[in-house]
Design goal:
- The protein is an alpha/beta fold and 327 residues long.
- The chain folds into two domains: 190 residues, 3-Layer(aba) Sandwich (Rossmann fold), CATH 3.40.50; 107 residues, no CATH class.
- It has ten helices and 13 strands.
């Protein structure tokens, strides 16, 4: 029987050190391929493979699109590209952001579950919010193994805590114990894949992450139409109930958990408030200049009117500034 030879790891804030410790605990003859998604800023220089390459005996690198999967290697998601798996092949995609990130953990976990079923071990390490929870649920639904870093051991416990809330986790460990556990799990036989059928929505969402036109242009959606819009593209959102985990996805594929959507909406609101503040400050400066000119021209009524408008603009600006500084 085939072992658990596909290891998918997700990390975010505080996860780089955890990744080094996990990789450092893996043996040189690991009979599995390891895939890593860590949330990276858009300006990232892509140094994570070099860091992981030095942390342990396995070679780490950014893969090429279409590269075949090989045991004994660590494949690290490139900046601004989702890392996806098909049977025996690695795919890179500029698909829609999920949980405000690209690369995101959920697309890797979901496509790994779709392609490899019970052979997959999913690992959630330190990170904020809840990326990885939906993907770890997908791994479990397909018979895979769920491993989570103990939140008390994580520098940032959000992702591990969310995984524990929403997934029946198989192993909860301190980060130092995860590498040795993986070394053991990859040599254990996995169950037969046919025991765990592929849910239709898992295939649908996996194709969306890869920008598959057959689903994006189909007009089909999973979930029920929600009462609000996508914070990234302003399109309609559809609400998906994944066990107790509530998620949202728009028609072009942007995906959010409730926590990540609230974060994104907050950032959109903050941007709108700063734009309004700038507009009011400019308006106050303009009408003050007009008031000065009216005084110089002896137009007292016009000057008074402009001065009142300037005071009102400054009052509104003060209200917005107070909101921004108190939140």
């Amino acid at each position: 029987m085939t072992g658990h030879d596909i290891v998918a790891i997700g990390a975010s804030a505080g996860g780089f050190e955890a990744l080094q410790r996990v990789v450092g605990g893996l043996p040189e003859d690991l009979p599995a391929a390891v895939f890593v998604v860590a949330h990276l800023g858009r300006g990232s220089t892509g140094m994570l493979p070099t860091i992981l390459d030095r942390a342990g005996p396995l070679e780490a690198a950014h893969p090429e699109d279409g590269e075949p999967v090989e045991h004994g290697r660590i494949y690290v998601a490139s900046p601004n590209l989702h890392l996806l798996l098909e049977d025996g092949t690695i795919r890179l995609s500029r698909g829609p952001h999920e949980n405000r990130h690209r690369p995101a953990v959920d697309p890797l976990f979901r496509t790994a579950a779709l392609a490899y079923g019970p052979r997959v071990v999913g690992v959630v390490l330190s990170g904020a919010l809840d990326d990885g929870s939906a993907g770890l649920r997908a791994i479990k639904r397909r018979g895979g193994v769920a491993v989570v870093q103990d939140p008390y051991d994580a520098l940032v416990p959000g992702m591990p805590q969310s995984a524990l809330r929403h997934v029946e986790v198989d192993h909860l460990l301190a980060v130092e114990e995860i590498g040795p556990l993986l070394s053991h799990l990859v040599r254990e036989p996995s169950e037969e894949e046919g025991v765990y059928p592929v849910p239709d929505e898992m295939e649908f969402e996996s194709k969306m992450a890869g920008l598959d036109p057959t689903v994006i242009d189909s007009g089909e959606h999973i979930g029920e139409l929600a009462a609000f819009s996508c914070p990234e593209c302003a399109g309609p959102l559809y609400e998906i109930h994944d066990g107790e985990l509530i998620r949202f996805r728009c028609r072009v594929g942007h995906a959010y958990t409730t926590e990540s959507m609230l974060e994104e909406k907050s950032e959109v609101l903050e941007g709108a408030l700063y734009m309004a503040l700038n507009t009011l400050e400019e308006s106050a400066a303009m009408v003050e200049r007009l008031a000065t000119r009216s005084h110089e021209n002896g137009q007292k009524l016009a000057a008074a009117r402009f001065e009142e408008r300037a005071r009102e603009a400054k009052r509104r600006a003060w209200v917005i500034r107070r909101i921004l500084t108190e939140t």
